[in-house]
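Friendly challenge for the regulars: who can give me the structure tokens for this chain first? No prize, just bragging rights.
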Amino acid sequence: MADSRSPWDIPSSWQPALEAARAGGTFLLLGGTDSGKSTLAVILANEAVGAGGAAAVVDADIGQSSVGPPACVGAVRVTAEVDSLEALRPDAIDFVGACSPAGHLVQCATSACAMAGVARKTGADTLIVDTTGLIAGPFARGLKGAKIRMLAPDLLIALQEDDEVEHLLAPYRSRATPRVLSLPVSRAAKGRSREDRASRRQSKFGAYFSHAGSISLEWDKAPIENSPWTSGEPAPGHVRAYAEERLAVEVLYAERRADGLFLITAGAGDRDGLRALAEGFGGSARAVEITALDHLLIGILGEAGQTLALGILEEIDFSRRVLSIFAPLPDPDAARGLRLGTIRIARDGTQLGSNEPGAVA
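First reply, four minutes later:
Bragging rights claimed.
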């Protein structure tokens, strides 16, 4: 329990939240960037453990994650009082594919729900769900509203300096559940610059991949769940040749599906030619440049769709339908699927670029 020896500056106005953690329940934390949500999650978990309960934390802050690598939602059980969640090994992670919720609202909400399910199976009396700092505008209302409906928290805890979170809390203030609790931001909360946050992500990715190695996966055995790629049959050679003629660019791979044609090309093709292809192949033709796949961050999935590991897509053998992936996965044979992300990174965690949401996946 928090006392005078606590390493944190805990305002007296936080006491209702601490009491709630000792009693147990599901708490969803809201607040802007650098408002201290992660610190509050640790404090609440410690309160629950100190009161003899079992606690679990779902870290859904995909850009500045404390539980697991960035671009993921992580879940961890807290069995003893801790100073930080960073040192705890995640019980599970779920790959979202990006470090920002923009363009990935559905993935963020479903991943948070999936990890809450994992956490609840541990028998935790107190479940604390941390969220991203996205609190402004319609995207924030959509994302937080979806999480509230899916997670059904007992208590919404908002950290705010003024009233910046009120528009997210207003729909729930007249309801019996979830209860709403507004807390002031702690004086000890420290802001990070954009450069600091990017550096932290690089460091976390670098640490995650520090024990990785190269593996080969046949995409027929581990198909991609969020892309048209691997969902059809290889197109005959004459179809590839015709596509190259229309696009005026080399076609590295062509796949036919019931709803159209999917292509991977060596460069940007002619847009009018792509539209002409669509007219002749079921009304749809989509081309992805190979550069968008180079060093793409991906999730490697198990037989139940769980995230086994993250990987970096480094080479593609189109003739053998084999992917070369850099990943910390001891047993590649356990892979049953892949999920494409939107960011491209080097082995040391440096971000090399990013794709627009929906450009590949």
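The longest helix spans residues 105-121. Confidence is low (pLDDT under 50) at residues 1-5. Your move, everyone else.
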